[in-house]
UniProtKB/TrEMBL annotation:
Pfam families: Peptidase_M50 (PF02163). Belongs to the peptidase M50B family. This is Zinc metalloprotease. The gene is rseP. Its main location: membrane.
């Protein structure tokens, strides 16, 4: 069931982005009376799941979910229709249109992607508002388990108060600045300390296979006892809070987890808070240092117990336009920083480059419209920026040649454009293979 939910969100988001991106090319092409021969969701390599001709355009769904396309008459694209290009130019063809019209047609897809992301952020601000956590309010600081962070000197209990020269007040700001982080200032036991990060910090994180960085510390709230647990007959019920072992107070789950390692194969007495009553229960510890009790992740309960303070802000519809713009700009800047890191060899951030599985993994295992729209907005910006890269076969490649034509007054020859398209196609295939190969390598090694 989890796979069905995740793949449904993945395909729905991908389909929405592709259709709207291609619609961004389709609409200006039609406005400029340019013939559009095909409009496809996914690629129809030798086969279509569905197709229907309406007017002069064939609309369809291909079987290969790696993207989509519109085939515009008289345009050198991935179809490499040399027969058509060998014929004299016709007034309804792309190549016959003025350069400024062709530029608008080519920029239509990324324009729609940017608009879509902004609109999503506006409505998310209006419907869901914003929530964040004040770092000062974190009880016990962060839980540090990632081996990369541990090796650099971070410890459980640290609070992040600055990244580079940027002061950090809210938890969400860590994700905003971590991509370009060179130094992180922490507060430990009331004093500040600066930790220098290596150039290949991002590469180390990618290689470690551990996605967790700075996690909240929370109590051990019981969800249920596993049916196969040594303690299946123990008197523990949902929402019990385990607060200690053998009289030792352990307010955080990470403390409990580490303490159990000292009692492998033994029986311990744990303190249990049930409502206002404190109980004692004997639990058997397995040879692996666990008790077979599932914990509950309940953010509202954690806040109620005073483990952190949640900041909530709601927006009027008018205010949502400004809040949406702020999210939109921050996402673009953050993704730009990611691309810069990927193209900077010393960061080794390229190790974190992922393909379709990496995108699929972003979606939660339960259906959540707030997560779905948030991820879709980010992917829409990602798709727009990647399409603007000056690589032949991408929109950015076509735009590059059009700008050259408009500035120089000379149009590149069709033979040159055909060769550039082939080169661009192989570059794209190499990037797709590399990104998805990274997914496979990480799945095998982690």
């Amino acid at each position: 069931m989890e796979f069905v939910i995740k793949i449904s969100q993945f395909l729905l988001s991908l389909s929405l982005l592709i259709v709207l991106h291609e619609l961004g090319h389709f609409i200006p092409a039609k406005l400029f009376k340019t013939k559009v021969e095909k409009f496809y969701l996914f690629f129809d390599v030798k086969y279509s799941l569905f197709k229907k001709k309406i007017g002069e355009t064939v609309y369809g769904i291909g079987w290969l979910p790696l993207g989509g396309y519109v085939k515009i008459a008289g345009m050198i694209d991935e179809s490499m229709d040399k027969e058509q290009m060998a014929q004299p130019p016709q007034p309804w063809e792309f190549r016959s249109k003025p350069a400024w019209q062709r530029l608008i047609i080519m920029l239509g897809g990324v324009t729609v992607n940017f608009i879509l992301a902004y609109v999503i952020y506006v409505f998310m601000s209006f419907i869901y508002g914003d929530t964040d956590i004040k770092i000062d309010s974190l009880k016990g600081g962060y839980w540090i388990e990632n081996p990369v962070l541990v090796d650099l000197g971070f410890k459980t209990g640290d609070k992040v108060i600055a990244i580079n020269d940027n002061s950090i007040e809210n938890d969400s700001e860590i994700g905003q600045y971590i991509i370009s982080a060179e130094t992180i200032t922490i507060e430990r036991n009331g004093s500040q300390q600066v930790i220098d990060l290596p150039d290949n910090f991002l590469g180390q994180l990618s290689s470690s296979g551990n996605k967790d960085l700075f996690e909240y510390r929370y109590p051990f709230i019981v969800s249920k006892v596993a049916d196969t647990s040594l303690n299946k007959s123990a008197d523990l019920i949902k929402d019990d809070i385990i607060t200690g072992i053998n009289g030792k107070e352990l307010p955080f789950f990470d403390q409990f987890k580490n303490e159990l390692k000292n009692y492998k194969g033994q029986t311990v007495n744990v303190d249990v808070l049930r409502g206002d009553e404190t109980l004692s229960r004997a639990l058997k510890v397995g040879n692996d240092g666990t008790v077979g009790v599932f914990r509950s992740i309940n953010p509202n309960k954690f806040q109620e117990l005073g483990y952190y303070d949640v900041i909530r802000r709601e927006y009027t519809f008018g205010e949502s336009f400004g809040a949406g713009a702020d999210k939109f700009v921050k996402t673009i800047v953050n993704y730009g920083a990611q691309l810069k890191a990927i193209f900077t060899p010393k960061t080794e951030a390229v190790k974190g480059l992922g393909g379709f599985k990496a995108i699929y993994d972003q979606f939660p295992s339960v259906w959540s419209w707030s997560y779905f729209w948030g991820i879709t907005a980010f992917l829409s910006i990602m798709l727009a920026i990647l399409n603007l890269l000056p690589i032949p076969a991408l929109d950015g490649g076509h735009v590059m040649f059009l700008l050259f034509e408009m500035v120089s007054g000379r149009k590149p020859s069709e033979k040159f454009l055909e060769r550039a398209q082939v080169i661009g196609f192989f570059i794209l295939i190499a990037l797709v293979l590399f990104a998805n190969g990274n997914d496979i390598f990480k799945a095998i090694t982690n």
